[in-house]
Write a structure and sequence with these properties.
alpha/beta, Glutaredoxin, 2 domains, 4-stranded mixed sheet, elongated, metal-binding, Glutaredoxin domain-containing protein, metal ion binding
Length: 227
Amino acid sequence: MSASISQLNAISEESEFESLLKTTDGKPLVLLFTAKWFEECSGIEHCLARFGQRDRFVMAKVEVDDSSALPPRFSVSQIPTVVFIVNGEEVDRVEGFKTVDILNKLKFHAKLYIPGFDNSDNMETRLRNLISMSKVMVFMKGTKQQPLCKFSRALVEILNNTGVSYETFNVLEDNDVREGLKKFSNWPTYPQVYVDGSLVGGLDIIRELDESKELLSTLRGNETTNE
């Protein structure tokens, strides 16, 4: 039986949002900005409600006409908008009726929350799961939407210019991953770029590949570069 839309938490005040954040226990919070008068939004709500049953997310919805604070806080200019929040910070969003994009983002961010992988015995398994979440996976300080160091910003700029799809993991949010991946990859610094589960390297190598016109084929998996 499909989940009911009523399973989504309905919030309108910033105080409700802050209270909801305290219940996430590290899970991604998925915030849907919708409107009662826009009937087509019901399909997006059903999509989120079904995924909410998997217990890897906290779901909430905001009726834009009922909230004067939350839409401007998240710079919402389009209905529907789905915002993904981790540890109080926005890490991703989808604007418009893009159900496939929303499902792909849900699947991706579901893998970021892996219950039971919080001890050293399982760290290698957890790292392999994280590395394999996307064909091109980047471990960096911050996210591709908000890089938090000059090296990560430079890398994001280069990757964005290729037009290749990639995902990021913010190592500042998980010290176990941050330290564990250094040992796992035998690579002491960040960012780190993986393609098809294999380490390509850091910013310097990405720059070299870009300058030699080899980056695009490497990211597409036509070449394997391990440093």
